């Protein structure tokens, strides 16, 4: 198993190219199930998660080919299987989103309940209720969801989400694109990834209105067509590198970052004393000199502060002047990085969904364990800011969602490398 070794203390200077968003790319890949024509995705991030989603789709009969550059072609001219087994679904959340498209196109599917980062209970009740509203008959058995469409296929309906779930909104959109008539989603999630999926489905022939607002209307079509679609830039990767520069100090332009997608983060970083500004084609982040100041944040659905950047923000706050209160409201178990940050000398106390971070003048490198995707990268950020050597173990979590992390950071002067762990004797 690989590990990441960081010699902390180097400032970051230069440019980092932001990849396509993992959390958009995976749902766009699921959209390929909706058409018998090829779907070509450009600006695709090359990640363990996208490869894994590719394996699942190949198992269902799709031809999945990685093209030159950041391109991927997915072709579902025929769906040969509607069964998504546990082994291909358990590792990540987005695989579950094949259920709706399969039922919409093939009339039935059997899909394992999903996995994903262990940051909370993460039920799928809202996904299932939405599919039932579109007419699917659902049974749960032995860890699998069995779904069947009525004769004549799924029919549009009114889906009122009690919580603005990202996954349930996307899942409903995917199924509704091939359902008869109109589907209206109330209290829809408003994340940029939703707008990205809406743009792709619209290009494929469905009519999707209101993505980015709380009410989304989808006119389904009997048939959708293949298109070429560019995946939106990754706002969480953007947030991560912005916070890495803030923690380590330096001056970096994040090429391909979308300023408008991270407003809540920019406000918090400004308040902490970091200079962030939009520049042509990206975002520039600078911190030279003074320590950052402690800032309170609370995670919220978009456009609020993203839960996927909470761990990275906490890493920055560990060396702030003053105290920062960090409240996590989306997932009930998303502070697993706190005890690991403490190994580096951070002063953090967690009480329920609140973490109080009392800034210390400096961190000192230590061996730490990655527990989930964003927690892992928060340890990398802390390691970059710390004195001495930090070793981040169990980095397979990182590889799920960060493309060429060491190369991107070392290109800006970080002393970071990947090592293969010696086999245990
Ligand atoms: C692959 C992907 O895109 N993952 C992202 C997606 O996850 P995901 O789509 O799982 O997140 P949701 O917005 O659905 O979940 C938010 C909250 O709603 C709860 N819930 C959700 C669905 C449901 O049927 N029932 C239910 O109770 C969840 O347990 C959680 O507490 O959005 C999250 C919130 O921005 C991000 O942290 C994840 O990185
Ligand atoms: C939690 C994440 O992913 P998943 O939903 O696949 O667990 C994430 O991207 O931070």
Task: Describe this structure as you would to a colleague.
The modification 2-(S-cysteinyl)pyruvic acid O-phosphothioketal is found at residue 117. Its EC number is 2.5.1.7. It is found in: Cytoplasm. There is one protein chain. The mean pLDDT is 96. Strand 10 (158-160), helix 6 and strand 11 form a beta-alpha-beta unit. The chain has two domains: 2-19 and 233-420, UDP-n-acetylglucosamine1-carboxyvinyl-transferase, Chain, CATH 3.65.10.10; 22-230, UDP-n-acetylglucosamine1-carboxyvinyl-transferase, Chain. It has helices at 22-31, 48-59, 86-89, 99-106, 125-133, 166-176, 192-204, 235-248, 263-272, 310-317, 337-343, 373-385, 396-401, 405-410; strands at 2-7, 12-17, 39-42, 63-66, 72-75, 83-84, 108-112, 137-141, 144-148, 158-160, 182-186, 207-209, 215-219, 228-230, 250-255, 275-279, 282-287, 297-298, 323-327, 347-351, 354-358, 367-369, 389-393, 415-420. With 425 residues, it is α/β, with parallel strands linked by helices. 31% of the residues lie in helices and 25% in strands. The strands form six sheets. A four-stranded mixed β-sheet has the order 22-23-1-24. A four-stranded mixed β-sheet has the order 2-15-17-16. Phosphoenolpyruvate is lined by residues 23, 92-94, 116-117, 119, 308, 373-374, 401.
């Amino acid at each position: 198993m690989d590990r990441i070794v960081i010699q902390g203390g180097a400032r970051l200077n230069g440019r980092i190219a932001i990849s396509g968003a993992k959390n958009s790319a995976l749902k766009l890949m699921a959209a390929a199930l909706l058409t018998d024509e090829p779907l070509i995705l450009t600006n695709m991030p090359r990640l363990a998660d996208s490869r894994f989603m590719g394996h699942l789709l190949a198992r269902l009969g799709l031809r999945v080919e990685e093209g030159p550059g950041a391109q991927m072609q997915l072709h579902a001219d025929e769906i040969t299987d509607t069964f998504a087994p546990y082994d291909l679904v358990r590792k990540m959340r987005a695989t579950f989103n094949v259920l709706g498209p399969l039922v919409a196109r093939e009339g039935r599917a059997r899909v394992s309940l999903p996995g994903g980062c262990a940051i909370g209970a993460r039920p799928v009740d809202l996904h299932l209720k939405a599919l039932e509203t579109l007419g699917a008959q659902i049974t749960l058995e032995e860890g699998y969801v069995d779904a069947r469409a009525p004769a004549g296929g799924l029919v549009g309906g009114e889906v009122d989400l009690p919580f603005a779930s990202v996954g349930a909104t996307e899942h409903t959109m995917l199924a509704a694109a091939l359902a008869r008539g109109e589907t209206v989603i109330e209290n829809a999630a408003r994340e940029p990834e939703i707008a990205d999926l809406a743009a792709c489905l619209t290009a494929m022939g469905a009519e999707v209105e209101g993505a980015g607002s709380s009410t989304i209307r989808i006119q389904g079509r009997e048939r959708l067509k293949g298109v070429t679609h560019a995946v939106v830039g990754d706002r969480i990767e953007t947030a991560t590198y912005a916070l890495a520069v803030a923690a380590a100090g330096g001056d970096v332009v994040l090429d391909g970052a979308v300023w408008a997608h991270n407003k809540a983060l920019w406000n918090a970083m400004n308040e902490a004393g970091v200079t962030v500004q939009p520049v042509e084609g990206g975002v520039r982040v600078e911190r030279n000199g003074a320590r950052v100041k402690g800032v309170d944040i609370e995670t919220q659905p978009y456009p609020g502060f993203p839960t996927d950047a909470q761990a990275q923000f906490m890493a920055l706050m560990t060396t702030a002047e003053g105290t920062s209160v960090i409240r996590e409201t989306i997932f009930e178990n998303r502070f697993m990085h706190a005890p690991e940050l403490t190994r580096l000398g951070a002063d953090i106390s967690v009480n329920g969904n609140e973490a109080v971070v009392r800034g210390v003048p400096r961190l000192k490198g230590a061996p730490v364990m990655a527990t989930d995707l964003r927690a892992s990268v928060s340890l990398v950020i802390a390691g970059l800011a710390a004195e001495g050597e930090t070793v981040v173990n169990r980095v397979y979590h990182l590889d799920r969602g960060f493309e060429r992390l060491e190369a991107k950071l070392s290109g800006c002067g970080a002393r970071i490398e990947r090592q293969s762990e010696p086999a245990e004797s």
